[in-house]
Design brief:
single chain, mainly alpha, 10 helices, about 0% strand
């Protein structure tokens, strides 16, 4: 049995490593915790932590448990806030979380706009995550023509990893592309 009181204690600790461990444990055990409302409050607080390593773990936890969170609207806002974080590693994790939960997002039009912004991020790792997110969610994106354009643009990226992921995303979604010519 998971010690939810222990996780909560770590989440409110003054020690960065304790809060980071709490975020990790929330990510690992959220679905099994008896009081998800309290767990969600802890996770929400950790998404706004002053330490980037804590926020990074919190983004991972959001990504792996989005469908179990009681307040998805706030969770979505937290995720978007994390995609705009000053730390590129936090943005990468948040972009990945966004991609893995796109189908659970309440407002896909807004989610699409946020995903589009990530394709233009200055960090290549964020653009890699954006290409992956576009590829795995292409059929759910409201504006496939614009998504296709973004993927095509990413195939011209200066970073080879971004180009490779964009090419894979195009290939795996060719049947959904509106203008195959």
């Amino acid at each position: 049995m998971v010690d939810q009181a222990g996780i909560h204690s770590k989440a409110v600790s003054g020690d960065v490593d304790e809060r980071r461990r709490a975020a990790y444990q929330l990510g690992s055990f959220f679905a099994d915790l008896p009081d998800r409302d309290t767990a969600w409050k802890d996770l929400h607080k950790l998404t706004q932590d002053k330490n980037s390593r804590v926020r990074r773990r919190a983004a991972d936890a959001l990504g792996s448990n989005f469908q179990h969170i009681p307040d998805r609207d706030t969770a979505w806002k937290d995720l978007i806030q994390l995609t705009q974080d000053k730390n590129s590693r936090v943005r990468r994790r948040a972009a990945y979380a966004l991609g893995s939960n796109f189908q659970h997002i309440p407002d896909r039009d807004t989610a699409w706009k946020d995903l589009h912004k990530l394709t233009e991020d200055k960090d290549s790792g964020v653009r890699v995550s954006a290409a992956d997110a576009l590829g795995s969610n292409f059929q759910h994106i409201p504006d496939r023509k614009a998504a296709w354009k973004d993927l095509h643009q990413l195939t011209q990226d200066k970073n080879s990893r971004v180009r490779r992921r964009a090419a894979y995303a195009l290939g795996s979604n060719f049947q959904h592309i509106p203008d195959r010519d």
